[in-house]
Design a protein that fits this description.
The chain is α/β, with parallel strands linked by helices and 370 residues long. 30% of the residues lie in helices and 19% in strands. Bound molecules: nicotinamide-adenine-dinucleotide (NAD).
Length: 370
């Protein structure tokens, strides 16, 4: 089985789907690896390291795409890149299926079987392959660093000859994978952390990291579904949650928002009115920016300043921590390839309970949306 690792082509995308250490493990499993020259450069892995791990490095993108059975990517390929894929080959990556109808049609036409990592079932057996979780971990960590750097104050309490400084108050909205990592990071930097989530189960996790849980139970019933995710709130619940968050946000120096409901636009939880009531110098890092933002005033990819409040519409933070983000992504890929390999060959089974639901195209057919 031949596996291709092309260079990512989207501007500012510094990650790579496989790092040399994982290449070595795949070679040991009997796979042949073809890596495009410079693919790992953004994440600080040079071509020589890939060769040393047993890969062949090619200068030709067309070879990495077209000369292999399975292409591993971080982001979805462009139309030109997709046109280089081998007829009947396979593709794995964050394919953003909901906004990729044209791409999926082109892939189906080439009879490429494409697996969208976003559609990996969130079941225990699939956890080692879960790139949404691994990359959310990186994003939650980096969001706090970005926010801390934009603050005019330091995070920890300091007792110095020049006076005593009180610690920064950090408020995290949404305590999933990214939010919990943000809480842990803010605590390590010495911030006093509180966090809100509409799932009651998040309370214990927040407390176990040393955060204070802003309990929604007085305003909304537990919003956790049987699948473990949050359900969308009703209009009335939403208004109550916005008011509760507004009261807490007004006291914070740094606010990190991460709230999402799968398959929906991000819930708007911080109103323009709440921003207007914040202390000048408050910083908001909106990790939900790409899904529309948790703050009404967020602009994806931009930093907005209003009334002394800085709102950072963070997009693709994992790419800014490319070495570790790639290392984690690559471990996820290794687990996925091990799952897909049967007797040394690639076995794509639509009935497989982990990879079947991820197949957005299969043997010439577009299978998304279901
Ligand atoms: P996510 O990125 O979908 O959302 C982030 C958080 O936002 C969630 O905690 C959600 O409850 C919260 N949220 C949604 N609407 C909100 C609102 N109106 N106000 C405040 N918060 C709101 O979440 P995620 O990181 O993917 O995690 C969601 C759940 O899935 C968690 O229970 C997590 O443990 C679970 N999970 C399971 C697996 C697995 O078993 N493989 C992997 C990852 C996550």
């Amino acid at each position: 089985m031949k596996i291709g690792v092309p260079k990512e082509s989207v501007p500012h995308e510094r990650r790579v789907a496989l790092v040399p250490a994982t290449v070595g493990q795949l070679v040991k499993l009997g796979a042949e690896l073809l890596v495009e020259a410079g693919a790992g450069a953004g994440a600080r892995f040079d071509d020589e390291a890939y060769r040393a791990a047993g890969a062949r490095v090619t200068e030709q993108a067309a070879e990495a795409y077209g000369g292999t059975d399975l292409v591993l990517k971080v982001l979805r390929p462009s139309a030109q890149e997709a046109a280089m894929l081998k007829q009947g080959g396979a593709l794995v990556g964050l394919l953003q299926p909901s906004g990729s109808a044209e791409l999926l049609a082109a892939l189906a036409q080439r009879e490429v079987t494409a697996l969208a990592m976003e559609l990996l079932p969130r079941v225990t057996a699939a956890q080692p392959m879960d790139v949404l979780s691994s990359q959310a971990t990186v994003a939650g960590y980096k969001a706090v660093l970005v926010g801390a750097a934009a603050l005019g104050r330091m995070m920890p309490m300091m007792i110095t000859a020049a006076g005593t400084l009180i610690p920064a108050k950090v408020f995290v909205v949404g305590a999933g994978v990214a939010g919990l990592q943000a809480i842990a990071t803010a605590r390590r930097l010495g911030g006093v952390v509180s966090a809100f989530d509409v799932r009651a189960a998040a309370g214990d996790e927040i407390r176990s990291l040393g955060g204070r849980f802003v309990d929604p139970s007085q305003v909304v019933p537990d919003a956790q579904t049987s699948g473990g995710y949050a359900r969308p709130l009703t209009e009335e619940e939403q208004q109550k949650v916005v008011a509760l968050i507004g009261r807490h946000a007004g006291e914070a120096d740094l606010i990190i928002t991460t709230a999402q409901v799968p398959g929906r636009a991000a819930p708007k939880l911080i109103s323009a009115e709440a921003v207007a009531a914040m202390k000048p110098g408050t910083v908001i890092v909106d990790l939900a920016a790409e899904a529309g933002g948790n703050c009404e005033l967020t602009r994806p990819g931009e930093t907005v300043e209003t009334g002394g409040v800085t709102i950072i519409g963070a997009v693709n933070l994992p790419a800014t921590v490319a070495t570790h983000a790639s290392q984690m992504y690559s471990r996820n890929m290794l687990s996925l390839v091990q799952h897909l390999m049967k007797n040394g060959d690639l076995a794509l089974d639509l009935e497989d309970r982990i990879t079947g639901p991820m197949m957005v195209t299969y043997r010439g057919e577009v299978r998304y949306p279901r």
